[in-house]
């Protein structure tokens, strides 16, 4: 199957996706010249998911072709390893061009399979407990991403929040720094609703906005929301007298939550917890959005936005680093907020540790007419806590953060060890796969020396040897042998005979690679048999065989003074055309053999030929004259007996007019031994995606020629047609088929 890849240039870098020849993008409203906000990386989990889907849906051969087109070399993608953000889009667009499936449909289907894929890493267990109802699940997605940060510390996940919930659905806001994943997310939502909540969801796209370097998608999810208002009704039915008794003072409240921040509608901090007071005493009375930066969720740090996202985890980070003054006390310094905000998004982990990070929940206190932010410090390791001026006893006794902070160092070391072991296993796997590919190439090469590639592939696919048998109505067979070979062998020792035959038949093997014929059986002594028209059918079988036989004579004429006992080599050649039956014979040493009277007649032609001459039967002569009169010049000879007084007219080949016809590589069985198997060698074919890209076949040929792996010069289809036209024309001077060294 041949695919055309001319409509799209696979050069997806961090700044652009280029569409050529007027190709339209199925989701062009999501892809623009600024599809990637920043040249950042992404973890291999999503890329591994895409690769797994393509393999399971379309098969390994399609995956190999997708890698070929996209220029991807990896077979596996480690989930905690970083890859280019453009890689998922490369794979999706390559899959689109190979399979023809629309891009948005591919993205949606891949998203639908995400829940099943997560079972590979057991993340699906976390999804099951994320929410009792579907709306609760959606509100908890940001919490899920916070959990995943333990495995993916530099994760840059999207943000979700719900509003306008009713019995018929809700409105979902999806914000992400990455663009082009809308259909992927929609597929995930539909599948999760069906798998975990047995709910069918219809998604209506309301709006797509781009704000603050973010993609903001607003969707209306239509589904049967049976649990709407059940929880609120249960709270309203609670005994009012009990609620009046459950009251605590503000002092106890701030002791229980040592890192709480209370701020009013004007965003001014009214009070803070005792733990936060020890490190940031000067923040009371200041505006919280000028003291802290809001890292998550992706919203504006305003009262109205916070009230809409009360179900989300809020991550705050101080605008300025906490430093020690000359007295050793922790103070808070101020600089330009806008400048700090710009720098913070580009800041690395080491620099970020100088700032205080808090993670917690926002909720509205009606009695205080304020929002309370109940958070805890986020510490990567114990030294960071010490440098920040915090201690274990600053955390509340009921807060599990005390245990997490103490155990984090040990867990980080264990996780680092596990990741190192996983990386080592991945490297070992890649090395083993490369070795396996090399061994497979070796075994394939050996197999294709014993059997034609097309027949070998049939047997590999489980077909029986009988099923591989086939009748060919028109083939041409060539037999050659060395004149007085027995006499030559009597004057040589066994090693000299082997070396002598090795040189001759190595040169002959190179000739058949060029002329598109197939060596049928192993060489027995000085006999050499080739065929054209089987197993690959062609209408030029007689022409290919005569060209090959003529080149044999030329090569034999060049072999002079190979040995002091053998000053020259003369060969005889016989050719006949007809029908044969071909099939695989044998179990321990299977061979591709030809059966029929055509083989016998071709052998008789060789036995009755003269040294350095090509004797052809009347059948072959007539076939050449009918297809292309005057292409060869023949000399009529006497009739010879075949069997039972049956005779046949014979001819010597004298010369050929015009250059020999060059067969197409894809129709040449002998050349397939050295051709590239995309499934095995796709990791060696790396394309740069430059403008004016050639076809994959041409690029593969160029790459292999550089490596010296091609034993032939690839010919384009246009070149083949030109050779075919020229070979049918009669030039001014004919080509003499008699070698200069031949006997006259």
From TrEMBL:
Q: Which SMART domains match?
A: CYCc
Q: Segment Disordered: which positions?
A: 655-744
Q: What is its EC number?
A: 4.6.1.2
Q: Which ranges carry the Guanylate cyclase domain?
A: 476-606
Q: Which processes are annotated in GO (biological process)?
A: nitric oxide-cGMP-mediated signaling; response to oxygen levels
Q: Which UniProt keywords apply?
A: cGMP biosynthesis, Coiled coil, Cytoplasm, GTP-binding, Heme, Iron, Lyase, Metal-binding, Nucleotide-binding
Enumerate the Pfam families for this protein.
Guanylate_cyc (PF00211), HNOB (PF07700), HNOBA (PF07701)
Q: So where does this one cross the membrane?
A: none
| Entry's Gene Ontology cellular component terms | guanylate cyclase complex, soluble
Protein localization: Cytoplasm
Primary location recorded for the protein, binned into one broad class: cytoplasm
| Bias kind Acidic residues: ranges | 675-685
What reactions does this protein catalyze?
GTP = 3',5'-cyclic GMP + diphosphate
Q: Which domain of life is it from?
A: Eukaryota
Protein known as: guanylate cyclase
Source organism (scientific name): Caenorhabditis remanei
Annotated gene: Cre-gcy-31
């Amino acid at each position: 199957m041949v695919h055309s890849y001319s409509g799209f240039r696979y050069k997806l870098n961090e700044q652009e996706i280029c569409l050529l020849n007027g190709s339209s993008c199925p989701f062009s409203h999501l892809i623009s010249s600024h599809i990637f906000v920043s040249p950042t990386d992404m973890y291999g989990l999503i890329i591994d998911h895409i690769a797994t889907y393509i393999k399971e849906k379309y098969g390994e051969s399609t995956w190999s072709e997708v890698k070929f087109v996209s220029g991807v070399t990896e077979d596996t993608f480690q989930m905690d390893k970083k890859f280019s953000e453009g890689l998922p889009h490369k794979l999706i667009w390559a899959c689109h061009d190979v399979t023809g499936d629309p891009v948005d449909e591919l993205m949606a289907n891949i998203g639908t399979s995400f829940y099943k894929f997560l079972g590979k890493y057991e993340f699906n267990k976390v999804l099951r407990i994320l929410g009792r109802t579907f709306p609760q699940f959606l509100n908890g997605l940001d919490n899920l991403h916070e959990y995943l940060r333990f495995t993916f510390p530099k994760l840059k996940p999207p943000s979700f929040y719900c509003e306008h919930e009713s019995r018929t659905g809700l409105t979902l806001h999806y914000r992400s720094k990455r663009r082009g994943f809308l259909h992927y997310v929609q597929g995930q939502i539909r599948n999760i609703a069906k798998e975990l909540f047995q709910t069918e969801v219809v998604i209506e796209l309301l709006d797509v906005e781009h704000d603050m370097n973010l993609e903001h998608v607003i969707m209306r999810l239509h589904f049967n929301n049976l649990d709407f208002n059940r929880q609120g009704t249960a709270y309203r039915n609670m005994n009012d007298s009990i609620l009046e008794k459950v009251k605590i003072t503000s002092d106890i409240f701030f002791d229980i939550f040592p890192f709480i921040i209370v701020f009013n509608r004007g965003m001014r901090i009214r009070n803070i917890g005792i733990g936060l007071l020890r490190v940031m005493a000067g923040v009371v009375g200041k505006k919280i959005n000028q003291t802290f930066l809001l890292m998550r969720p992706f919203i504006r740090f305003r009262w109205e936005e916070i009230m809409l996202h009360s179900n989300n985890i809020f991550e705050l980070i101080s605008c300025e680093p906490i430093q020690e003054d000359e007295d050793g006390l922790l103070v808070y310094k101020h600089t330009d907020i806008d400048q700090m905000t710009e720098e913070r998004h580009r800041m690395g982990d080491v620099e970020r540790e100088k700032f205080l990070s808090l993670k917690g929940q926002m909720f509205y206190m009606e009695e205080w007419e304020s929002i309370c932010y109940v958070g805890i410090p986020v510490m990567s390791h114990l030294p960071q806590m010490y440098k920040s001026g915090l201690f274990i006893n600053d955390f509340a006794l009921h807060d599990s953060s005390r245990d997490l902070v103490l155990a984090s160092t040990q867990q980080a070391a264990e996780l680092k060890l596990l990741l190192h072991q996983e990386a080592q296993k991945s490297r070992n796997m890649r090395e083993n796969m490369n070795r396996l590919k090399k061994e497979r190439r070796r075994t394939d090469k050996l197999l294709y020396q014993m059997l034609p590639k097309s027949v070998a592939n049939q047997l590999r696919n489980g077909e029986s040897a009988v099923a591989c048998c086939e009748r060919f109505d028109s083939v041409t067979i060539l037999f050659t042998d060395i004149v007085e070979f027995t006499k030559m062998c009597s004057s040589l020792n066994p090693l000299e005979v082997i070396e002598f035959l090795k040189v001759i038949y190595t040169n002959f093997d190179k000739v058949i690679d060029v002329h598109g014929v197939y060596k049928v059986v192993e060489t027995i002594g000085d006999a050499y048999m080739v065929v054209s028209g089987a197993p690959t059918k062609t209408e030029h079988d007689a022409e290919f065989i005569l060209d090959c036989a003529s080149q044999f004579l030329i090569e034999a004429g060049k072999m002079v003074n190979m040995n002091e006992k053998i000053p020259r080599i003369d060969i005889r050649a016989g050719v006949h055309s007809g029908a044969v039956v071909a099939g695989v014979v044998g179990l321990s040493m299977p061979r591709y053999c030809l059966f029929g009277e055509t083989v016998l007649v071709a052998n008789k032609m060789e036995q009755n030929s003269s040294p350095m001459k090509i004797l052809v039967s009347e059948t072959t002569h007539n076939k050449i004259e009918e297809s292309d009169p005057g292409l060869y010049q023949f000399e009529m000879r006497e009739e010879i007996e075949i069997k039972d007084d049956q005779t046949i007219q014979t001819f010597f080949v004298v010369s050929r007019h015009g250059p020999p016809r060059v067969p197409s590589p894809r129709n040449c069985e002998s050349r397939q031994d050295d051709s590239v198997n995309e499934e095995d060698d796709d990791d060696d074919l790396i394309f740069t995606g430059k403008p004016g890209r050639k076809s994959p076949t041409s690029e593969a040929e160029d790459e292999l020629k550089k490596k010296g792996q091609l034993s032939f010069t690839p010919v384009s289809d246009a070149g083949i047609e030109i050779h075919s036209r020229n070979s049918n024309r009669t030039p001014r001077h004919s080509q003499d088929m008699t070698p200069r060294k031949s006997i006259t």
